[in-house]
Amino acid sequence: MDINAVNALTYEEFLEIFGNVVEKCPIILAAIWSNHPFRGIADIEAQISDFIDSLPESGKEGILRCHPDLSLPAVSLTRDSVDEQRAAGLVCMDSGERTLLLELCARYRQRFGFPFVICARANSVESIGRALRERVNRERAQERERGIEEVKKICSLRLRQILQPHAERSTNTTKL
Amino acid sequence: MDINAVNALTYEEFLEIFGNVVEKCPIILAAIWSNHPFRGIADIEAQISDFIDSLPESGKEGILRCHPDLSLPAVSLTRDSVDEQRAAGLVCMDSGERTLLLELCARYRQRFGFPFVICARANSVESIGRALRERVNRERAQERERGIEEVKKICSLRLRQILQPHAERSTNTTKL
Fold this sequence. Notes:
The structure is a homodimer.
Chain A: H1 3-7, H2 11-18, H3 26-32, H4 41-54, H5 57-65, H6 79-87, H7 95-112, H8 125-135, H9 140-163, H10 165-172
Helix pairs in contact in A: 3-4, 4-9, 5-9, 7-8, 9-10
């Protein structure tokens, strides 16, 4: 799908296709629709990023709270999250790894009041475990910013998945 | 439900109960969760209002775009919207009224790029028709602000419906 095709969409079609590039926050895409037509994928990405940056700190935490815990059962996840967690190998952890991840995620959420967010597609079970152990000890403001950086990475990959699916095909072939 | 009961909720319970007080914008409730415990219903309402006011103009338009057109079939509406449209008598319009409302709503959306939003519970078919005919000719910035005022009225009534259901019971008995 090229940018001309995106600009030819109705609002309803746009929201249907792009509504979840920031997990469960269709309002962000509903907002940037105010500035269409878009100049390209980089323009869409920049507008999403600027919108997120314009939010008060509570709004950034709100975005993080719209994300699932990493080790939730697939049934409660969006399709996007399932694919991403699969790509990181999170669906084939053994029960010991899963228990450890669950405990760390719970400690993280308990400490900060929002879930641990990481771009699963850019990570493996090992690197996610390492990041969790490190990040769980940081300060709230630091983690709010770090979480939002990860939200933007996830968003960028989801946008590319929609707009340049062939370039991303390789990450899709990861086996269950 | 009193404010102590609200403050005793987990985040998941809070979102389940209050997530739709601003139509399809759970992120707003996810955001104000950063400031819990709440001092009372007025505190929750003020925090939602402040959060909305803090958004860039595109964000306010995004909120309006998360609202349904007034005359959509019930199947595509949230439960809250169905109840509200029923209270305003919108479900028992004759086909002439419905066609006129549809046309005006389409003209409004075409002109402003967001749907006509009005607090249905505070209106009747007649007053909604009057408001539509008036508001469809205004300026976009004016309608953005007016729409957001209506969003806040809807939110206020939804909050009271949850927190003081007995005081609101009378609006619930409207027949189909």
